[in-house]
Design a protein that fits this description.
The chain is of the alpha+beta class. Helix content is 41%, strand content 11%. The strands form two sheets. It has a three-stranded antiparallel sheet, with helices on one face. Helix 9 packs antiparallel against helix 10.
């Protein structure tokens, strides 16, 4: 077949290679879409939790929407006594995260009796200012404090258990029984002393929280001094 004057056809091998590359590009997988931006506030956290079942079920970073912080980020989110301590066990978070049900969120206040005491005792881990949020799925509370930082949500896990594990048995029972009033007030400085490994302060505060009857239900006032 005569060629057009001034027009040269590409080499057949080059043409085949170009066609192969074009087909491969067309059949390849598209890169995953970027996750939607996260929003601050109660509504923003509810949105994050409502989308939890649309993520890959086998990867923690997606199942928890990437909220578990690395050590440097965690230390930027917490108060001084809680810095440098390990992230809690994510298995407890996973159990509640997998539940079916409507997600609810609210600001954390120490005197909110509907919120588990383990979360209220952990409130001092977050600096004074806007309170962290807590959330539940159905009737199951997520064992984490949620903090919005640099455009995204982070979850602080296992803070209360980390403190309790550093207390002697009698003191631990009283600490875990601190749910309101003076008992809850004593739990904050006791946690700071335990995390700082300040033995003198820990022993003094342990004696106070035990003497105050915080391991009884309800807590009993200490006996009057004769």
């Amino acid at each position: 077949m005569p060629g057009h004057p001034g027009l040269s056809l590409p080499d057949p091998l080059v043409l085949a290679a170009l066609v192969t590359l074009a087909l491969a590009a067309g059949c390849g997988e598209r890169p995953p879409a970027a996750p939607p931006p996260q929003r601050d506030g109660v509504d923003g956290l509810v949105e994050l939790l409502a989308a939890r079942h649309h993520r890959h079920p086998g990867r923690d970073d997606e199942r928890f929407a990437g909220c578990v912080p690395d050590p440097a980020t965690r230390d930027a989110l917490v108060t001084l006594p809680y810095r440098g301590h390990a992230t809690g066990d994510v298995r407890a978070l996973a159990a509640a995260w997998r539940r079916d049900g409507v997600a609810h969120a609210r600001a954390l206040y120490a005197d909110d009796p509907e919120v588990p005491a383990s979360l209220r005792r952990a409130r001092p881990a977050v600096p004074v200012g806007p309170p962290p949020l807590v959330a539940r799925v159905g009737d199951a509370w997520l064992p984490a404090l949620f903090v919005f930082h640099r455009g995204r949500w982070w979850c602080l896990i296992g803070l209360d258990a980390y403190v309790a594990d550093r207390l002697p048995a009698t003191c631990r029972r009283a600490y875990l029984g601190a749910t309101a009033g003076r008992c809850l007030d004593l739990s904050a400085p006791l946690a700071a002393a335990a995390l700082a490994d300040d033995r003198a302060a820990r022993e003094r505060l342990c004696a106070l929280i035990v003497d105050h009857g915080c391991d009884s239900v309800p807590a009993a006032a200490p006996a009057p001094t004769p």
